[in-house]
Amino acid sequence: MSKCRPPLTALLHASTIAISLGIASPIQAATDPASDASPTAASDILLVHVGDGEMRDATLSSADSAAAQPTVLTGGQGDDARRVPRDYLGIGIGIISVPDYNGSNSRRRIPGGLIRARVSGYSISSRGTNLQVDLLRQIRGADTDWKLGPIINLRSDRTRSVHDPIVALLGERDTAIEAGLFAGVSHRGVITSAYDQLGARITFLQDVSGEHGSWILSPTIDYGTPLSRQTFVGLSASVNIYGPGFGAHYFDIDAAGAARSGLPTYDRAGAHVTLGKATFGVALAHAIAGDLRQGLLIVGGAQYGRLMGSYADSPIVATRGDADQWIGGLGLAYQF
Prior knowledge:
Helices cover 8% and strands 42% of the residues.
């Protein structure tokens, strides 16, 4: 089997494989930083929604083919010379079906898009409503790839009217701006072939806008492998841990909100640090022209998420919504 780089190495990450094509989704604010900025994703995920960061990355990582890509020498000659993979640009658009809000039992369809690029070995990508930059240069031919860099995310959960008339009476939220760091490592040639890849990643986001005033920590594990020169598949699993302020802002109900909506008051979600959500996802890419390394791709994915603990017990979930959260989407991507 000839070496091939799965489509948009970075195009295919979440938590949090939520098909996130990069959308400012209504849900995007609840669960995944790296998606949820959930930015947790380990390598790059195809259609993923991390905005709740949640809808998150199905983080699919892939192997770069040394034979198929030109070598660039940087940093001079001799021991200081470094070989880096070729530059690329990938874009994607699609349609995603997501819960109306994080914890809702109704759905809405939203458009999404993403951009991924690599210049001189440094990667930049958008996932859901976040933007991140990998400050560690990739080395061509290396089986292990370390990642570290800044990330910024816009969380827009319940920033517009929701379909549920009772939850809508609790009022809208403003967009939260979150900033932080991600770090991870991936290794290729671990299970099925010399070209599959297993990765681990952790993302930390802190609200810097004063909206929920809290933080989100998202560890993620992902695995991806090319099935042929035309087809690539990836799996991802992640959890999201939230600071007290996050649960208080998005899941608790104060006396005024209870009076307006008729729902009971609730203050357990903001009482302590919470393991609030777990997600599992799958993503698939198929090259229309027969080569995953370039050209037009059909991409799709699905993600199952489960709200847990005091988040699942909140009246907006237990009474008006559902702790089981599904996301799915389909789109087109093109790599130059």
